[in-house]
Structures are given as structure tokens and as C-alpha cells.
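HUMAN:
Just now I want nothing more than another pair of eyes on a protein record. I would be glad if you read both lines and explained how they fit together. I have put the entry right below:
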Amino acid sequence: MLGTLQIVEVRSVEIEVLANGARLRSLGDSIVASLGLAVLGEPQWHAFPPREDSVGGHTGLWLLAESHLALHSFPELRALTIDLHTCRGGRPFPWIDVLPRALGPCTVHVRVVNRDEAP
């Protein structure tokens, strides 16, 4: 089984939320835990320095036995992108319900790519 890729774009997030690395890392940890996925090693995390026009964003990567979870914040665009690839079947994560509770008011767009279907 090649699995599925869930591509999530979150818009209109408050800049302070997107600049808060601890909050974003906690979000990633909770996604992984709620799905019962197995993290291999420590999540990798990078905080980008502030720029003259914006606070710095963050990139986080969880290497999973089932594949990976990646988060990228773009405070200057008030956006967060999330990619979750798993080799498990099953229903997609309830992004539209979970993310506004975790991040505050935002809009959430989700695409799911089933890699087991022919292109």
C-alpha cells in the first residue's frame, strides 16, 4: 500500500500563532498522537529569523514509521501548510474541525491524494 497524502492549507491565521513555535510543535505532536502514529527519533524543527517585513516562521518535520508529517508556517502570508503522508488506509484526519480549535479562527482547505489509485 502506497497510502495517502493529505495536503492542508490553512489561511487567515493570526500572525502571533504562526510565530509561536511551541504552539505549532504541540499541534504536530497532538496530530501524531491522535492518529496513533509512531515517531522515529525527535521531530526536526527550524525557526526562521525575523525579516524586516515579518516575524519568522517555522518548519517542523516528524519522521514516522508510517511516513511523515510536515508543517510550514508563513506569518507574512498568515498561512500554515501541513502535509501528512501515511501508508495506512482509513479516513482522513478531521482537519476542518481540529485546526480552528487549535489555531483560532482560520479557513482550512484539504486535498487527499490516494497514491494507490492510478493517476
Observations:
- The longest helix spans residues 21-35.
- The chain has a mean pLDDT of 93.
- The CA atoms of residues 3 and 89 lie 6 Å apart.
- The helical segments are 15-18, 21-35, 95-103.
